[in-house]
Design goal:
The protein is an alpha+beta fold and 201 residues long. The protein is built from nine helices and six strands. The strands form two sheets. Strands 1-4-6-5 form a four-stranded antiparallel β-sheet. It has a two-stranded antiparallel ribbon with strand order 2-3. The mean pLDDT is 93. The protein binds zinc ion. The site of zinc ion has 5 residues, from strand 4. Zinc ion is lined by residues 72, 77, 79, 135, 138.
Length: 201
């Protein structure tokens, strides 16, 4: 896919790929403790420490998955940007403006919409479905991701969270049933044309 993109002058590069449970847990804890910026759906900073525990869980989930619930755990999903579209040293922020018309990655966005499926990839968070905010940069390899998606059950997630050192664990566990429906299962289904072409390894 990177080769095909390069022919159009797009340097497809990963901003983030596989992320393990401990790393996701670190992100979660930093956001919970106010050590990492918390953003609302429109990308504006939120003062998380002023929120109730329940509201803080909800605020984190807008942009970060709960530990154990990230598709980045599967090794099938990654966030991409166009290295050729920005100056050297540019710090990718992964915000909607970068991928919107006029943004540096607008062309990549259009290219992915047209071509990603040919390589087995699609974007599970393309549209706002009231769960995870739209993430035009997030690619999922549909045939392999399906294998993991089928195996992820609420009980598995609960067990992982219960046994980890997670800030706000009580509130998170309480929110788990709704969270599972709204953020884990509430993703776009892969387009049909993918399944005809790409196969799971
Ligand atoms: Zn992602």
């Amino acid at each position: 896919m990177a080769k095909a993109a390069a022919r159009e002058g797009i340097a497809l590069a990963p901003a983030s790929a596989y992320r393990d449970f401990a790393t996701q847990c670190g992100i979660w804890n930093e956001k919970w403790l106010g050590e990492r910026t918390l953003l609302d759906r429109r990308g504006r900073p939120v003062e998380g420490l002023k929120l109730s525990e329940r509201a803080r869980v909800a605020a984190i989930l807008v942009w970060s998955a709960a530990p154990g619930a990230s598709r980045h755990h599967w090794g099938t999903d990654l966030d991409v940007y166009d290295r050729a579209a920005v100056p050297r040293g540019y710090r990718v922020r992964l915000v909607p403006e970068e991928y919107a018309p006029g943004g540096p990655f607008a062309r990549l966005n259009g290219w992915l919409a047209k071509n990603a499926w040919k390589f087995g990839f699609y974007r599970p968070y393309r549209k706002d479905r009231g769960g995870v905010s739209p993430e035009p940069w997030h690619l999922s390899h549909a045939p392999t991701a399906a294998l993991y998606s089928r195996r992820l059950r609420p009980a598995t997630l609960r067990k992982a969270i219960e046994s980890a050192e997670i800030e706000g664990k009580r509130a998170l566990l309480r929110a788990l049933p709704q969270l599972y429906v709204r953020y884990v299962r509430n993703v776009e289904a892969p387009p049909r044309r993918i399944s005809r072409r790409a196969r799971a390894p």
